[in-house]
């Protein structure tokens, strides 16, 4: 929603509404008040209409009374807001009473003759009361929202204090005690900031919040191992450097969160994103097309200056050592063509302006506008192809993580020379990835994706040197288990960021191709009582760092798998096929479970997770039914393949269903149930990834044969069959970047507690 509901009907409260919760609270009130005011425009009003209006007025007054009571209670608990909140509540109550009085008409059909003022005789009074009501209610909501911001700041301050204590500890016993407290504080902070992220209206702020929270998630595990390494090897300079970098990055991310929620920056600074080529081209095209409506809308120097700025930014591509000669020449030629077309447009524009009768674009100018827009689009398309192509190549090249393996091996052998050599290799890889993220930012297509690209660039830039310092520490202390564990954690963070980059690449492609790249939220959460007959309410538990990282790793794998499902779904011509509809539904539910592992989305508690998993298993069994029906049309060899995978899917769905319906008690049992549910979901989605391309191939074959033979006879009657590729049947069509095993990956800090 672009504007706040208060702006509808000219009821502007003068307060900026930044969260969806405040906005959604106001919408019913705006609707009711608008109904009251608009009834004045109808000259004839029946008794029934008058009574309905009176009921609406009374309902508004009662609702405002309850609302104000909550506001006054908040004021009592928060001394700093007591005066402002009290005044806003007083105004809201007064406005509610005024509306109730104006709509009180008794049972008389005709307008009152006793001199009383009502909504029918005093529309101005009603408008005034409505303005006061909406303004005061909005102010109460915005003031209440400050309490949420205060909670986040207070939580951040607690984390900072404990962070400083952790940085100064000198013994393992003290560290363990303080880190336990730190973990609990981070869980609270994660819940508060996760809720805030979901509530923000501004998509750019949401992206910034997501980036800052991602840093905190990864850094929490790094902080644990880096601090332990420093305690074990207090005289090791590389261990100290490694630890200091983690603490610095955590403090920076904590500050970023506060800047986002308070909408401020230190010392009055204003941070502006570096202008991307995509944004520059969009603004340039907007001004070019605007010339149709106004020949005098801007000076011609501004237009040529905008294009010059865009072309200058293409130097990030043409000056890169990693850009091929062919691509470099293509970008330069398209840039020159855009300049020529713009010069021709300016010439036609000047001629039209000097013509006495011309008030709008001439035919020659219209042609120049079209040519200029087309040439800059071609430039943008070429840049997109270069950036996305390079990113895809890099991800394939580094899928095996060879420099990381070499650093681990040489560090474990105590070979400092080999560590130095492989550190240079990793440094080169880091520079390539940093530059590629910068190019992707230029073609990302939306500001939130630009922010994600910048976050990826910063992550590679920071983690690269941290991996090297961790490897140096291990090389100096090759028998140290803690130093080895520390290097593993940093390497896994690097691998995790590469996986995130793969997802980012798909989202950028989606935007460029006209798809928003947004995952559909699965809103059909189980209704109370429908799926919970065999479920007991699970008490929220706190997970330790290892459990949190395990669940986060599973969630990341689930995210990659759902992306693979989406890719396969897009290849189907018949998007209404039962197999596709059920597959999309299951993928959306699995994505909701992934969001749960990050403390985001609609699933807030472990009970929500178990409910969702049960619904997913039921949908999976429906898919099995569809697959069985589908198999009846197949020849024997093809039927065996589909039924074999269907039986795997059915067994996994039944296993998931039984698992989530089994009641458990206690922290360990709850964690095991969560872990098992997500692992079973992952296995189900993996089977789907095998099945979808197989079924799609068979559907295409069936369609092709029907078309060529002109007969709808059963596939079983065909004598020929098309072989299905072994790599698909053997499960080699999964994510190209590799999904790591449970023992190899400890990535994000995750939160499963209910609020």
Automatic annotation (TrEMBL):
BP terms from Gene Ontology: cell adhesion; Rho protein signal transduction
Compartment annotation: Cytoplasm
Segments of this protein annotated with the region Disordered: 708-729
Bias (Basic and acidic residues) ranges: 715-729
GO MF annotation terms: actin filament binding; cadherin binding
GO CC annotation, single: cytoplasm
InterPro entries: Alpha-catenin/vinculin-like_sf, Alpha_catenin, CTNNAL1, Vinculin/catenin
Family: Belongs to the vinculin/alpha-catenin family.
Record's keyword annotation contains Endoplasmic reticulum: no
Entry keyword annotation includes DNA damage: no
Domain of life, per lineage: Eukaryota
Annotated Gene3D superfamilies: Alpha-catenin/vinculin-like (1.20.120.230)
One Pfam family it belongs to: Vinculin
Alphabetical keyword list: Cytoplasm
Official protein name in the record: Alpha-catulin
